[in-house]
Amino acid sequence: MIILSIICAALGAVCRVYITDLLNAKISHSTITPTTFVNIIGSIMIVMFIPLMNINEFIHLLIPGFFGGFTTFATMTKEYYELITSKQYKSFILLFITYIILLLLTLSLYLFIQ
Questions:
Q1: InterPro entries per the record (predicted)?
Q2: How remote is the C-alpha of 72 from its chain's centroid?
Q3: Is the Cβ–Cβ distance between 111 and 49 less than 8 Å?
Q4: Of the residues 55, 70, 75, 84, which has the maximum number of CB atoms within 10 A of its CB?
């Protein structure tokens, strides 16, 4: 089971890299960075799969494995740090507020599903 979780984490990381590279190539300037987009999508997917954990053991591989590799909060923190150190305060605040709002919406989705 641990090996499958590691494989799922690797697949999640590959998907994250592919999506962020694709978005970086398509979007030159946006309120939401590709990393934030991937983290929000990953969070929403985790919320949607949590109710299925008691039904299917494969979900136990998806949540910590695939979505653990898919989301990357360390990279997001690095992006925030780079915005602050390059004195792009407006972009940082806008991105941070957008992220908080999207996380609250994700939390609302979770509470609605329960």
A1: FluC
A2: 6
A3: no
A4: 70
Alpha-helical regions (H) of the chain: 2-26, 34-49, 58-61, 67-70, 73-85, 89-113
d(CA 114, CA 104): 15
Instruction: Convert the pLDDT of each residue in 61-114 to its tens digit.
Output: 788 889 888 988 788 888 889 889 999 999 899 888 988 998 898 889 888 877
Q: Dihedral through CA 86, CA 92, CA 94, CA 96, nearest 10?
A: 170
Question: In this model, does residue 24 exceed pLDDT 90?
Answer: no
End-to-end CA distance of the chain: 27
Residue 13 confidence (pLDDT): 92
How many folded domains does the chain comprise?
1
